[in-house]
Design a protein that fits this description.
Largest sheet of chain A: 5 strands, antiparallel
Shape of chain A: globular
Largest interface: A-B, 143 and 147 residues
Order of helices and strands of chain A: HEEEEHEEHHHEEHHEEHEEHHH
CATH superfamily of the largest domain in chain B: Sulfite Reductase Hemoprotein, domain 1
CATH class of the largest domain in chain B: Alpha Beta
Number of helices of chain B: 15
Radius of gyration of chain A: 25 Å
Mean pLDDT of chain B: 96
Structural class of chain B: alpha+beta
Low-confidence stretches of chain A: none
Helix content of chain B: 25-40%
Strand content of chain A: 15-25%
Number of helices of chain A: 11
Low-confidence stretches of chain B: none
Radius of gyration of chain B: 28 Å
Helix content of chain A: 25-40%
CATH topology of the largest domain in chain B: Sulfite Reductase Hemoprotein, domain 1
Mean pLDDT of chain A: 96
Oligomer: heterodimer
Number of strands of chain B: 16
Shape of chain B: globular
Strand content of chain B: 5-15%
């Protein structure tokens, strides 16, 4: 392959350089019906799972067809999305915060051909390319992080468990039978670049072994003071170690203080944590970000550990499906999972879901811990 | 014949949900066939090697990616994440596999010609694999080699009028909800404010000068569809301070069953007839609603704008007319010191171009955080360490009861000398005249 230059000259990087121009302006990409009615929408309605209509003061309508997808996406797949948008939507489309794709048309008669087209497209392996759904009280697409496809600190994969979970929850993606919306999110380590800590159900990758110390290279590859400072529990201290007859500068880790966060590894590549038996999944539930009825809530840890089971993580998906079904059967209309658990009490939540309560689930991390213990005689047997 | 056997990944091709494995395989085949006769600038079999290295991770239960090195484009300190494979001999196509973050357009609206241009560029100069989109909001170009970074940046800026996003200790790429573009709940123009601040703070976005990452997110209403309250150092959440609009005829239509509640999104289950008392009035967190002579009444002064009644009856109830936004600060995921939700700093501000009042708050907070924040300390952690009062001081915002859920539980008030009559300096001899040792 021959190098193809764009015109950029590495000897003169500043020549004709364009910087600080920001993104393309949003209104370049508004479909005409959006541009015309922006700020003047009157109401919306969900016509069927995955299909919305918004009606403007002008009487204009925009019909939106939402479909799911993997956020890991090839250019071939994006070009197919473009082909669909050209065919049905005059070349406009959008993505949602939760990795769904939305195709918009300006009249009702255009909806069915669009839905039929989307539902007819399948990958060679048999899965849908563009399943329609994910609106209202469905379980919509899972937001997630990179996992083993691209990250250096994950304790689990992201795309794999997400695919496995959405296969199990697919019927919920395509229907409106839940009491309220239920948001599932995945972060492949506790750095949570996906910020899953306020989700109805959070799937979180977690390490359970302290870092392995690569003494021979540690001082050569890392700034030891930075690695020490990175530890939130002060578990790391400087140490001299013997290596093949030589005294080397390195670190020592107080294992019982380690919370397995991997911050040291982010600062110092000579302190890897990942481990096939040590790593796995934590399930957290009952969080939300909406201010509707009750205030936003953090998710709570209800399953301390499930081993990684590639390729389909069956114990994880089974545990999720079980909680989803119990919520579906027991919660009131409009009640989010966390609101349901608080109404019936967490002791009853563990009962109903058949979950084991272990010491791992009692908070012992600094001040906030106290506020999670029970300071009342009001509890249920 | 695939370059690497992938028996575990192959099991993720079945099932109804779109399979990323099938998509990767389709891309690998497309690159091998090269229908447009491209002079691929990174190895043709890069996608085969992605599948191979991922299969190895499935087998080992561990990642095979190393830390990033320092790579980027000239003059920027963000937008590119260095990434190298720890098995480069087995997977040479992904030995160097850097990510580029491309700043997405507001609310992720696209025209196909623009998306196709990005695809063509990434097909030629990268792996052809993307994330649409990353968690923060960017278009993610997943995997290219160092020598392509400047070339891609050149074409992005020169041909497509498009810049990179943020990474590292920068302002991260701001993100917004769909807002007024297609939502009747939006209390301000989220795209307008998001774009304005993104342009205003390009320097902060591209050149790391902060103690750590900093995120802006823009939600048009308290439903918080972009989760700003949970994950943005500054979240801008639309609200109003007058009355909810009521269309009594539409209220009757909900009661009578001509309109379905919650925009008709409970349809696949029989919840019985709509009961306005049970489903709206009794669920109102402030109990500020009642029925009187067949009319729905709201005591708006007592309303805390939770959105429930409006969500249930969008054709009967409307957000108020005196609209603006609340600013909450300090939200973050758990690393390092535990998760934090955004805390209310500015209850109400109008959101009108040129947004001077909003920018004043932002810049006061940044000055404080850049002066006092420790390395890798988020704004929320600084607020906890130095106190909410300190933040009010640096922003010049008056304390008000809206700032707290409830007043403090202890009387350990750090009185300042100028708050106490006579000051702190006293004469011990004067004291001893009346109090023996």
């Amino acid at each position: 392959m021959a190098f193809v230059s764009t015109g950029y000259d590495p000897k003169e990087p500043m020549k004709d350089r364009i910087t600080d121009i920001g993104p393309r302006k949003y209104d370049e990409f508004y479909p005409p019906v959006i541009a015309k009615n922006k700020g003047k929408w009157l109401y919306h309605e969900v016509l069927e799972p995955g299909v919305l209509v918004h009606v403007a003061e002008s009487g204009d309508e925009v019909y939106t067809v939402r479909c799911g997808g993997a956020r890991l996406m090839s250019v071939t797949h994006i070009r197919e999305i473009c082909e669909i948008a050209d065919k049905h939507c005059d070349g406009y489309l959008r993505f949602t915060t939760r990795n769904n794709i939305e195709f918009m048309v300006d009249s009702k008669d255009k909806v069915k051909p669009l839905v039929d087209d989307l539902e007819s497209r399948k990958f060679d392996g048999g899965s849908y390319k563009f399943p329609v759904g994910g609106t209202g009280t469905s379980i919509t697409n899972i937001v997630h992080t990179q996992g083993w496809i691209h990250c250096h600190t994950p304790a689990t994969d992201a795309s794999g468990p997400v695919k496995a979970t959405m296969d199990v929850l697919f019927d919920y993606f395509k229907s409106h039978k839940m009491p309220a919306k239920l948001r599932v999110s995945l972060a492949c380590c506790l750095n949570m670049c996906g910020a899953v800590h306020c989700s109805d159900i959070a799937i979180l990758g977690y390490h359970r072994k302290p870092p392995i110390l690569d003494h021979e290279y540690l001082d050569k590859m890392c700034e030891i003071p930075l690695a020490i400072a990175a530890c939130p529990t002060a578990a790391i201290k400087p140490a001299k170690v013997e290596f093949e007859g030589q005294k080397l500068n390195s670190v020592a880790v107080k294992n019982e203080r380690c919370m397995f966060c991997g911050n040291c590894y982010t600062m110092c590549p000579s302190m890897p944590l990942s481990d096939q038996e040590g790593d796995g999944i934590v399930l957290m539930v009952g969080g939300k970000v909406s201010n509707r009825i009750s205030a936003p809530k953090f998710s709570k840890v209800v399953v301390a550990f499930i081993p990684n089971e590639p390729p389909r993580w069956p114990k994880t998906t089974e545990a999720i499906k079980n909680m989803v079904e119990k919520y579906e059967a027991n919660a009131n209309k409009y009640e989010r999972l966390g609101e349901w658990a608080e109404r019936i009490g967490w002791e009853r939540f563990f009962d109903i879901c058949g979950l084991e309560f272990t010491h791992h689930l009692i908070d012992d991390f600094r001040d906030p811990a106290y506020y999670t213990w029970r300071q009342t005689t009001q509890f249920k047997f | 014949m695939a370059k690497h056997e992938t028996p575990m990944l192959d099991q993720l091709e079945s099932g109804p949900w779109p399979s990323f494995v099938s998509d990767l395989k389709q891309e690998a085949a497309n690159r091998a066939a090269n229908p447009n006769n491209l002079e691929y600038q990174i190895p043709v079999d890069v996608v085969e090697d992605i599948l191979g290295v991922l299969e190895l991770s499935f087998k080992h239960g561990r990642t095979h990616w190393k830390h990033g090195g320092i790579v980027g484009v000239f003059g920027y300190g963000g937008g590119v994440i260095g990434r190298y494979c720890d098995q480069p001999e087995m997977f040479p196509g992904v030995a160097h596999f850097h990510t580029m973050r491309v700043n997405q357009p507001g609310a992720k609206f696209y025209k196909t010609d623009f998306l196709r241009n990005l695809c063509d560029l990434w097909d030629l100069r990268g792996s052809g694999i993307t994330n649409m989109h990353g968690s923060t909001g960017d278009i993610i170009f997943l995997g290219t080699r160092t020598e392509q970074l400047e070339e891609i940046f050149y074409d992005l800026t020169h041909k497509y009028n498009q810049d990179l996003g943020g990474s590292g200790s920068n302002l991260r790429t701001p993100a917004d909800c769909i807002g007024q573009a297609r939502c009747e709940y939006a209390c301000y123009d989220t795209q307008g404010l998001c774009y304005h601040l993104t342009q205003e703070y390009q320097d902060e976005l591209h050149r790391p000068a902060f103690p750590y990452k900093f995120k802006f997110k823009f939600d048009g209403c308290p439903n918080c569809c972009v989760a700003s309250i949970a994950r943005a150092d500054m979240s801008f959440i639309g609200t109003w301070r007058d009355n909810i609009g009521i269309d009594q005829e539409a209220v009757q239509a909900y009661i009578g069953g001509e309109l379905n509640p919650n925009a008709n999104d409970h349809g696949d289950r029989d919840w019985g007839a709509f009961d306005i008392q049970k489903e709206v009035i009794d669920l109102c967190p402030t109990e500020c609603m009642w029925m009187e002579d067949g009319k729905l009444m709201i005591d708006d002064k007592e309303c805390n704008r939770c959105m429930h009644c409006i969500n249930v009856m969008p054709r009967a109830l409307r957000i108020g007319q005196d609209r603006g936004l609340s600013i909450l600060v300090g939200a973050k995921a758990p690393i390092l010191d535990g998760a934090q939700m955004g805390s209310l700093l500015v209850p109400f501000v109008k959101a009108e171009d040129p947004y001077d009042e909003i920018k004043e708050v932002i810049e006061n907070l940044w000055d404080w955080w850049m002066e006092e924040g420790k390395n890798r300390e988020r704004l929320g952690e600084l607020i906890k360490r130095q106190g909410f009062q300190k933040m009010l001081e640096v922003t010049g915002i008056k304390p008000m009861v809206q700032h707290v859920q409830e007043p403090r539980h202890n009387p350990y008030i750090f009185w300042k000398e100028d708050e106490v009559e006579g000051g702190f300096d006293r004469d011990i001899n004067e004291f001893r005249k009346h109090h023996q040792r």
